[in-house]
Specification:
With 303 residues, the protein is mainly alpha-helical. 62% of the residues lie in helices and 5% in strands. It has a 3-stranded antiparallel β-sheet, with no helix packed on it. Pfam families: ABC2_membrane_6 (PF06182).
Length: 303
């Protein structure tokens, strides 16, 4: 057992027993939660800044990677646009309406992926033992895992999503009100928070199943692919699942349906379109608890 003095004089207990690194971030009553959150944000910012400097040292490579990321992401919408060269509507939705769904979901996932996407590598760190080094640093593990190998090229997905969403909004025939205008950015930010909570929960699951990164991706990338299409093309059982079990419908479906003046599925009231921020908060609570439980149950590989 050893003590390491953390940032701001924080005493951190490091317990190593027979190669077993236990959660070592048991604070001995000095720094409150708010202080630890500030330390986490500060550590995250410093690590991200380091990776950005590293990326910008090769600007041409970064620009090509970001452009390639944008083009690859845009191919999904190109496929939808090609489909509309043969049809007038998909599930009763026009191309501009689907552009709103596609763009908002792409931006939300892009933001979550930019800031927390590297959490899907936690399983690799658990298997090769590199997580041990993070546990003895005076920065929360989640901040280190999320900021590690920060990929600025992911801005490509966000940029193309914004472009498609802006085009869709500009040609939509919608009776815009102050509430609808305000709901669009709220939808994007809250959707990013929902995806971020899913990423954290998926990372926590990898403490139990180390090879579960694809399970996490099925709810994030797979979920975004589903949300790019109107809910009218899916069955009611699936709609119930993504509304009441894993509430991905609050990423963009419910808010966008309100903006478009369309009925909400499953007979839900119209005001549910404004619940996305609350859903994101409620989803983060079990995700954060699962993460803390995962870190505390971690056993070192001994390597």
């Amino acid at each position: 057992m050893a003590d390491v003095t953390g940032v701001g004089g924080e005493a951190v207990e490091v317990r190593v027993v027979s190669g077993d690194v236990r959660d070592v971030r048991e604070v001995r009553g000095v720094v409150p939660w708010g202080g630890r959150a500030r330390e986490g944000l500060r550590g995250y910012r410093l690590i991200v800044a380091m990776w950005i400097r590293s990326t910008m040292a090769y600007r041409a490579s970064f620009l090509l990677a970001a452009f390639g990321n944008a083009v690859i992401s845009l191919l999904d919408f190109v496929a939808i646009a090609v489909m509309f060269s043969h049809i007038d509507a998909l599930g009763g939705f026009t191309l501009p309406e689907i552009a709103l769904l596609y763009g908002s979901c792409s931006v939300s996932l892009g933001l979550a992926d930019l800031f927390l996407g590297n959490t899907d590598r936690i399983g690799v760190r658990i298997r090769d033992g590199s997580l041990d080094t993070m546990l003895v640093r005076p920065v929360p593990v989640l901040a280190q895992v999320a900021a590690d190998r920060f990929a600025l090229r992911r801005l490509g997905r966000i940029t193309q999503g914004l472009a498609v969403m802006t085009w869709g909004i500009s040609v939509l025939e919608v009776d815009w009100t102050a509430g609808k205008v305000l709901l669009v950015p709220v939808m994007v930010v809250a959707g990013a928070a929902i995806f971020a909570a899913v990423l954290v929960a998926g990372a926590a699951f990898q403490f139990i199943a180390g090879d579960a990164a694809e399970v996490q991706n099925s709810f994030t990338y797979g979920g975004c692919t589903m949300l790019q299409y109107p809910p009218t093309v899916f069955g009611r059982d699936l709609l119930r699942g993504v509304t009441f079990v894993v509430p991905l419908a609050f990423v963009n479906w419910l808010p966008a349906l309100y903006v478009l003046g369309r009925p909400v599925p499953l007979g839900l009231p119209q005001w549910t379109a404004f619940l996305s921020p609350l859903v994101a908060f409620l989803l983060f609570l079990p995700a954060s608890l699962a993460w803390r439980a995962g870190v505390r149950s971690y056993r070192s590989t001994g390597s």
